[in-house]
Specification:
GO molecular function: DNA binding; DNA-binding transcription factor activity
Order of helices and strands: HHHEEH
Helix content: 40-55%
Pfam families: GntR (PF00392)
Shape: globular
CATH architecture: Orthogonal Bundle
Region (Disordered): 78-97
CATH topology: Arc Repressor Mutant, subunit A
Distance between the termini: 32 Å
CATH class: Mainly Alpha
Radius of gyration: 14 Å
Number of strands: 2
Structural class: mainly alpha
Strand order of the largest sheet: 1-2
InterPro entries: Bact_HTH_transcr_reg, Tscrpt_reg_HTH_GntR, WH-like_DNA-bd_sf, WH_DNA-bd_sf
Largest sheet: 2 strands, antiparallel
Number of domains: 1
Number of helices: 4
CATH superfamily: Winged helix-like DNA-binding domain superfamily/Winged helix DNA-binding domain
Protein name: HTH gntR-type domain-containing protein
Strand content: 5-15%
Length: 97
């Protein structure tokens, strides 16, 4: 997690919380956030991306709901570990390439 701060360039027809979901997933795919690694909390994410805390919260909640992230009470929000099914599916796709 970098200590950088920038404002995201949002597309006019794009929901900000969805753009943040996509940005966090991009960071995970790029290896910037790895399984088990903490992600910035709502206040930090809001400042980092130039959005309100409510928008950051909605994005994090969507990522928790879809299993991309998980929370540990009193500890924070973390990148989920790929499930065995995800690993097997990715291996199968790779084998077919």
């Amino acid at each position: 997690m970098g200590s950088y701060c920038y404002t995201m360039d949002f597309k006019p027809d794009e929901l900000r919380w969805q753009a943040i979901v996509n940005e966090i997933k991009r960071r995970i795919e790029a290896g910037e956030y790895r399984p088990g690694m903490p992600v910035p909390g709502e206040p930090r994410l809001a400042v980092e991306l130039g959005v309100s805390k409510g928008t950051a919260r909605r994005a994090l909640n969507a990522l928790i709901a879809d299993g991309t992230l998980y929370t540990v009470l009193g500890k924070g929000t973390f990148v989920s570990h790929p499930s065995d099914d995800d690993f097997n599916e990715a291996s199968t796709r790779h084998d077919q390439d």
